[in-house]
Predict the structure.
Amino acid sequence: MPMDILPILASLRRHKVTAILLILEIALTCAIVCNAVFLIGLRLDRIHTPSGVADNELIMVRMSNIGGRSDVRARTLEDLAALRGIPGVRSAAILAQTPFGYSGTTSSIKLSSDQKLPTISYVSTYFGEGVVNAFGLELVQGRDFSADEYHWLQDLNLGLPGSSPRSVIVTEAVAKRLFPDGNALGKDVYIYDEPSRVIGIVRHLVTSQEWVPGQEDYSMILPMRVSPDAGMGGTYVMRTSPDQRDRVLDAAVAKLKGLDPRRVLTQKSTLEKQRATFFSADRATAGWLIATCAALLVVTALGIVGLGSFWVAQRRRQIGVRRALGARRVDILRYFQTENFLLATFGIVLGMGMAYGISLFLVLQYELPRLPAHYLPMGAVLLWLLGQGAVLSPALRAASVPPVVATRG
Amino acid sequence: MFAYYLELAWRSLRRNKSLTALMIFAVALGIGACMTTLTVVHVLSGDPLPGRGDRVYRVLLDAEPMDSYRKDGNPLDQVTWVDGMNLLRDGKADRQALMTGGNVAVTPPDASLDPFYIGARYSTSDIFSLFGIHFIYGGAWTAKDDASRARVAVITRRLNDKVFGGANSVGRNLRVSDADLRVIGVIDDWDPQPHFHDLDMNTYGDSERLYLPLGTSRDLGLGHSGSTNCYGNGRSSEKELETQSCTWLQYWVELDTAAKRDAYHEYLVNYSRAQHDHGRFERPPNVRLFDVMSWLDYKRVVPGDVKIQAWLAIGFLIVCLVNTVGLMLAKFLRRSGEVGVRRALGATRGEILTQLLTEAGMIGLAGGIGGLVLAILGLWLVRMQPHEYAKLAHLDFTMFLATFALAIASTVVAGLLPALRACRVAPALQLKTQ
């Protein structure tokens, strides 16, 4: 039979204010930690967003011309041929935007030409020849573009007839959003005035800029050739093996500079680095949240130790009397452990209410998802363990009080 | 008397070293975390245009088609070339500027320096007076230069240092892309934090270093960067942006009085109505005038993450203080005997209270010093981060003072409850039980 809790409650009533403060501290800690752990989880999920591309094999070089050029298209093809000639380069392409690159084009998709509001308003739109191969995308249905499907992007922007893309490759997420019940493959969708047929579906392809939660895969690829003409710009993306990335990057820059020295290097990076930069804020936030949680738990634990020690010192006489009347050491130990368990339980119950309140505030103020219920029992277990761990040392000290104390003044 | 209290406090704190250390540690941690995050929030939400921010307004018009119309919707953030030019021609505000940003290649006259790319601002002439930008050499271009698309440029001190070695470069030529621009003015570096004028460029950090007339940028075919939002049949081709239904320009005005502000709002509504009658606008008039701070608020410039971190730190401080209240309470109550003796010897309750609060204040001061060290350390860690705003995270004098004020005030408040309870001791009873 565990310790009868009634005498403990009676004794706590004599230290009402202190007990309430401890309960409050445990409650606040429980409430904050539950929410913080949930937020940490959200950050970590975001940091691990699958990109769909071969993250650790891609490198990027961006060159900007000084002033206008007349023969940009021929030069671009020449550049690409030279890059493909570098040993270790498995594929090379020039793209208008790259994953986690912050900037890029978005387009809307409609299912018919006379539809008023688009079915999807913002789909990250990748232009470039050979994107599927260059990125190492997983094609789950359909095929890649064939050479005769490509047009120059600049022509499309100028509205030249016949430059509109007649085919498109979408991600599974876009396919599912467009055609929830049926297969999207082979269906026509409207991105520009003329219909484009879905000829392929890839597993994942992350958007090139910040996304609305749940829409990280809202991307498509259009068969458009990109050149570094003024305004649009283009990034050379090469795929190589992870250990050769640095060498190939240097070789690529040297090669491009050699072909045309009249241009300025404006980007030289691996995709892995670009990804790390993109998520740096999330990583920093997660780190901060983890550190604060840890500090919070340490402070609360120390608070329990400190108050526990005080109570033990204050009740030395009382403990001695109990020991002299026949209580065993283990009974004294149990007493303080049970007392802490009770205080922690009150704190946790109060803390759950507070956790819900904080979550509600975050939902309203910062449009975060609501705290899932299963975080509450996790927080409860954590705080119980913390309390028991922290009270152990004062409780052991109490248990070691000899019965003879009762007879001293 | 106060010196005596300080001595008593010092003795009491030394008597129980580990407990004192625990209290100071908790206060320091809480203060350190709070000041680190609050400093970041403070830096990020500062007024980028002090003294003028309440007179300078961003103008939004709703030129989008009826297709995607939603009641209570917000207009797009930027304006089209046609609308920008119309508003500029009417010139109803005290000052007005139409602008956008871009990246341009600069070839220094010194052939030993490599060409490089920098951020540039393409704007009409009022930008300098509108934003209160200070000239070191020369001056701004004129409306006439705007109209004639003159080949002129204004550069910042930093660019002037880099290209012309810091000399008065007015009248000299600077090669920008394919053209030679004549430098007509050098301004002090102008890096408002955040870059309220064009949030599509980086929000924080370095701003543009080269300014040239908007028309000139179009003549030279300098591409613009930032966002381009096309609707209807608009095509985002750089070469024909003037005629397309695309918004890509920022419009800023200065309105010196509230009456002028209201009149300008009225004018924008009338303008929208007139455009509607012409058939250019399809939607009912929907205009916005944001002063600088409300514009930043509307665009939610301070990252939500930063604010959540600050809330978390405040929560943490509260826990630390509750912890300190509990420990102080236990400590003060244990000293009932001492309090009883002092009361019996003639000390008033107020004197006891002052003495105990002095002790709490000392913990606060020590915690504040510890918190300051931790905040400096924390901000140093923030600056290590690769964010664009990381470099700004410095403790300024206000926040330095705030650290101590917060530390001492919060511990004294935390000490109030324990001290009040402790000085309620009835001296006779207390002495008898001993």
About this structure: Chain B is about 50% helix and 15% strand. The first strand of chain B starts at residue 56 and ends at 60.
